[in-house]
Every structure is written in structure tokens, then in C-alpha cells.
Amino acid sequence: MEAVTSVSGRAYPWGQKNVDTDVIIPAHWLKTITRAGLGRGAFETVRAVPGNVFDDPAYAGAPILIAGDNFGCGSSREHAAWALGDLGIKAVIAPSFSDIFSGNAFKNGIVTVVLPQEAIDRLLEVAKTDPITVDLEHMTVTTPFQDRFEFSLDPFRRECLMHGLDEIGLTLERDEAITRYEAEIDGARPWVSQRAA
Amino acid sequence: MATRPLTLYEKVWNAHVVERRDDGTCLIYIDRHLVHEVTSPQAFEGLRAAGRKVRRPDLTLAVPDHNLPTTPRVDANGRELPIADPESATQLAALRHNVAEFGVPYIDALAPAQGIVHVVGPEQGFTLPGTTVVCGDSHTSAHGALGALAFGIGTSEVEHVLATQTLLLSQSKTMEVRVDGTLGFGVSPKDVILAIIGRIGAAGGTGYVIEYTGDVIRAMSLEGRLTVANMSIEGGARAGMIAPDDTTFAYLKGRAMAPTGADWDKAVDWWRSLATDAGAVYDKSVVLDASDIAPGLTWGTSPEDVVPITGVVPDPESFADPSKQAAARKSLDYMGLAPGTRMQDVAIQHVFIGSCTNSRIEDLRAAAAVADGRHVANGVRAMVVPGSGLVKQQAEAEGLDRIFTAAGFEWREPGCSMCLAMNPDKVPAGERCASTSNRNFVGRQGPGARTHLVSPAMAAAAAVSGRLTDVRELIG
Ligand code: SF4
């Protein structure tokens, strides 16, 4: 995972509530074998409507998405996070997220920022014309107009994001403990191991 | 050391803590990791990109199931037939490639032991009591029938387990579901779990690991217990467990990957010690009486929408909760059913006997007992899909295939099949299926398909009468 200390740039001013993972990436994309390339299927049904925010050239390549309440509800498919990442989105700002989605997003280096609806309304306004910055160091969202909204983040997740540590990398650092556990189990419950003798 | 009485779940959890972190989460060791073609390609890709390897291939077992067509897989000369759907073919090829590259033990699509991942694990003796078992599939809960702590995981977690053989987890709450008494005539384990889900609701188990206890569970075969534990997830619980006992040990002994010799004896001693201690406290307890359980089925699009076969389609207005009323109206609209209709008057066009819930040898015997000497009704398409190649072989040795085919059922190759319509087996829009699978969600068996979840015997009864039928009228 790449380290993220801040995300700056244009933001899709979407504001939609209750966006489920079927909207983020429809089920027929689940037959893929890679994480990559799912951006093509991201928001497929939304993008089928002309004039949608995702195809507006003003926001092309925007790294931030501003959405409404309960973003990422529905199925647990991690493909939703992969699709956003492939689209170039590195942060989503919304009043609330589904637990599973924010977990999946975090595991893929996407910051989920929770801000109250008033802040979202202001950011939706600014995003139409100007860039926005999400700063993990100070845990703020700022605009070129002196707006400054503070947010909080799980300390473990913040640490992982800022140092580009993925959970796998962190757990691999516990290799010694895992190896010790394996040795104990080989003694106590030898039938668990299928290692060729 | 102070010894507080512990539940089965707590004992298995404690035995797998590698490290306890300050925030209370634990690094938990994973003893058994099952892999299939749908949720693993991106995990292997992640390993490859990071230059990582599979830490314990010996604790990992891969088998394809979801995408495989259930039609013959080789031609008359034994040559492998191509898979028509290019995306399915690609996912299956990716699994073959990944297991070769990472050295993961693999049961190939053409091997006799191939089958649905949750049928294969116990059948091979890969799943053992007191182990932690994971798979990128929510029905991993099935393996809890052997006294394992078994649950489904997401693709990033699949990659995490492949790389580290561990997961970072928080402990769940415990729920006892006790079923007292003796099951009535014609009542099967599927009816028991449907009754349980009807009682606790589809979200009733959220945040809990269920332990199934009571005389009914103790009297059940291992196959029946697998059916019950399999559907724990339909009750919202991530896992469901049953304490290992002589039934479990008899089932496992001699299986291909089960321990042998001195290891076996040592294992059985430990497995026996896992039963919940007298005086241990569950966070929640639910008790059902077997005499209240009849052959049952679902009427709606949630597995909690359960009625006895002698019942009627409920009136949405009869539910107290307004959101449930709205959901029921939507369900009935999708299902094309009117309130008050007798379940036994509902005609069906399809019957599916299979899935990781009900595709083991006992399930096929129960269905064959009903099909024997009868014939599938006009206008009904009925298929039997064994859960694995070994189940298929055994059924054929017992002559069950001939009973089914003589009765007009299709006898097919093992796989997930019509359980989820990711392969070519689908129910057409607007048509109705009596199915032994586990999910009656909107579109689960194909866009617009209408599913009634039933036991294998009830499915066979529906096939021969062309409508939902009380199996007790056909047997005995
Ligand atoms: S049979 Fe159905 S529920 Fe079971 S693993 Fe296959 S698709 Fe999932």
C-alpha cells in the first residue's frame, strides 16, 4: 500500500445518499480475476445517464469523492473499493459509511472521511469550482477559502495509511511470534500440521 | 491458573491466539484455509505484486466449484471439454495457474474428489474439530458442524491468510441455540435450521457465534449437522459450532487427510475436552422444542420467511413491524404469491437438489427414497447435483442415480450449480423452484427466479407432484 499523508485535488461533488455496492460496481463485474481495471465498471448505471458528474470533464481524474449518508451499504464485495481505487479516487468524504465498505476501503489505501452534513454541503459547493485537501497529519479537510473541518480516524488505520503499511506487512513483522506459535502447536497438536515429515 | 467454565467457542478461540493486542483484538492463527476460484484471483495477484509467498501451503486446499458447469467435463475420449463462458473459463484457468505457481494443494475440476468447497473440506478430513477454518465464502460456517471455528472472509483477508496464516480479529459474543426433544416423522435437519432462522431472524445472529446444542443436535448425523451449521450465516451469525463427539470422530476416522495412529488418539482426547463446560455462560440463549418443528419452507425472499408446509402465505399486514410489512409486500410481489394461499397449492416448475447445504449422501438418499417408483410431474425440470465426485460415486454405488434417472430427474456433475447461477444452471425469470440450497434472495437462482428453500425429501416430493407438497403424505 502506498503511504497517504494527504490527498489534494478536485472532488466529484456527488452528495448521493445510500449508495450501495451494487451501484459502485454491478454484480456482473465479479467474474474478473484482477483488482485492476474495475474503474471501467465503476458507477456503470450512474454513468449511463448523460450529464452525470463522473463524466464531466471538469472533474476528470479527481482523487476525492463527496457523497451522502451510508455510503457503501449492501454486499461485502471488495470489488467496490477496487473500482474506486482504479478510478483514481483516494478519499471519500461522507456523513457515514457502511462498516464493511470502510474496512475494505482502508485495506486498499482509500481514506474514508466522516464529516457532518453541514460540512458536506459546504464542500459540495466549493468542489464545483475549486480543489479540496484531505490532510491526515492534522486530520483536517481544507479549501482555498479558509474552510477547515476536523475529522477523526481510527489510530491504527491512520498509522497504516500514513506509513503505507498494509495489514499484511504489519502482520509479517510479527513473524517471530507466529513462528513461535507454530512451534508450540507442532508439539501440542501435531495432527494440525500437514507438513511432510 | 483460575479456571472459569468456558464455552466451546472460547476454548477454540483461546487455543489460536498468537498475540493479544492492547486494543483487545487478537492475532488468530488459521489452521485450515480453503480456496476457490471466485474470491482468490486478486489475493494471489496481491501476493505476486508484493513478492510474497504462501506461508503454509500444507494448511491450504484449493478446489474449483462456483463456475463449473455441471454437464460432463470430458468428451468420449477423456479429453477435457472447453468451458463456454469465457469469464468463467478465465477464473478457472487462473486458479489452476495460481496453485501451480504458489505450490498450493489442489483438487482439479477433473479429479474424482472435486466438489463444493464446503463438502470437500469435511469429506477429505481437511476440516478437523477445534481448528480454525476460513474460506473466501460466507458458507464456511458449515465446517463448524465438526466443532471447528469456521467463517467466511473477504479477498484482502484471503491474501492476509495466504501470506501470514493469521487474521486480526475481535472476539464475538456467544449464542446457544438448543433444540430439545425428538424430531417428528419426516422432519429433517433442514427443517430444523429453517425453524431456527424463522425464530431468530435473518439478522438475529449478527455479532454472535452460535453453538447448537440439545438432544436433537446430538442425535443428528454429521451430514445433518453440516446442513444446520451451513445456514448459520442466514441467521446473521458469522459462525455456528457443534461440540465434537463420537458421531464426529466416527465420520472423520480414515478420511484421506485425517490424522492417523498415535496422532489420532491424541487428537480425539483433545477434541473431547472442547465441549462447553458445565456452568459456562452464553451471552444469549434460544430454546426450540422439536415437537414444534414441521417440514418447513420459505415463502418470501429472506431465509427468515419460514412457514410449515401445512401453512399459508402470510398476510403482510399481520406483521407488527411496518418495515417488515413493506418488505413482505415486496417479497410477495416478487414471488407472485397472494396472502392466504395454501403453500401446498403452489405449483413449481423447477427442482434443485444440491448445494453445500444439502448435497451429501444422506441428502441424496432422503430424496431418492421419495423419488423411488414415482415420476417427475409434467412440466417440471428436476436436477440432482451431488456435492462432490466422491458423493456421486457413492450414490452410484448405491444405485441412487438409477432411481433418480428412472424417475425423470437429471443426474449431474458436482458443483455449486443452481445455488447461485454463476454457471449455466439457472431458473428462468418468473419461474418457481423448490430448492435445497440456502438463499432465496431476489435473483439468486437467476434474474427474476422465485426460490422456495426446502429439505431434499420435500424437494423430491415437490418434483413428483408438481407443487409444494408435504413429504409426510408420500412416505411412511
Ligand atoms: S453451493 Fe451455493 S452457497 Fe454453497 S458455496 Fe456454492 S454458491 Fe456458495
TrEMBL record, chain B:
A GO BP entry: L-leucine biosynthetic process
Record domain Aconitase/3-isopropylmalate dehydratase large subunit alpha/beta/alpha: where: 10-466
Top-tier EC class: lyase
Cofactor or coenzyme needed: [4Fe-4S] cluster
Amino-acid positions noted as binding [4Fe-4S] cluster in the UniProt annotation, renumbered to this chain: C356, C416, C419
Reaction catalysis annotation: (2R,3S)-3-isopropylmalate = (2S)-2-isopropylmalate
Gene3D superfamilies, A to Z: Aconitase, domain 3
Annotated GO MF terms: 3-isopropylmalate dehydratase activity; 4 iron, 4 sulfur cluster binding; metal ion binding
Keyword Plastid: no
Domain of life: Bacteria
InterPro entries, per the entry: 3-IsopropMal_deHydase_lsu (IPR004430), Acnase/IPM_dHydase_lsu_aba_1/3 (IPR015931), Acoase/IPM_deHydtase_lsu_aba (IPR001030), Aconitase_4Fe-4S_BS (IPR018136), Aconitase_4Fe-4S_dom (IPR036008), IPM_dehydratase_rel_enz (IPR050067), IPMI_cat (IPR033941)
Keywords, comma-separated and alphabetical: 4Fe-4S, Amino-acid biosynthesis, Branched-chain amino acid biosynthesis, Iron, Iron-sulfur, Leucine biosynthesis, Lyase, Metal-binding
Pathway the protein acts in: Amino-acid biosynthesis; L-leucine biosynthesis; L-leucine from 3-methyl-2-oxobutanoate: step 2/4
A UniProt-annotated Pfam family: Aconitase
Free-text comment on the cofactor: Binds 1 [4Fe-4S] cluster per subunit.
EC number: 4.2.1.33
NCBIfam families xref list: leuC, PRK05478.1, PRK12466.1
Subunit composition and interactions: Heterodimer of LeuC and LeuD.
Functional summary from the UniProt entry: Catalyzes the isomerization between 2-isopropylmalate and 3-isopropylmalate, via the formation of 2-isopropylmaleate.
Membership in a protein family: Belongs to the aconitase/IPM isomerase family. LeuC type 1 subfamily.
Protein name: 3-isopropylmalate dehydratase large subunit
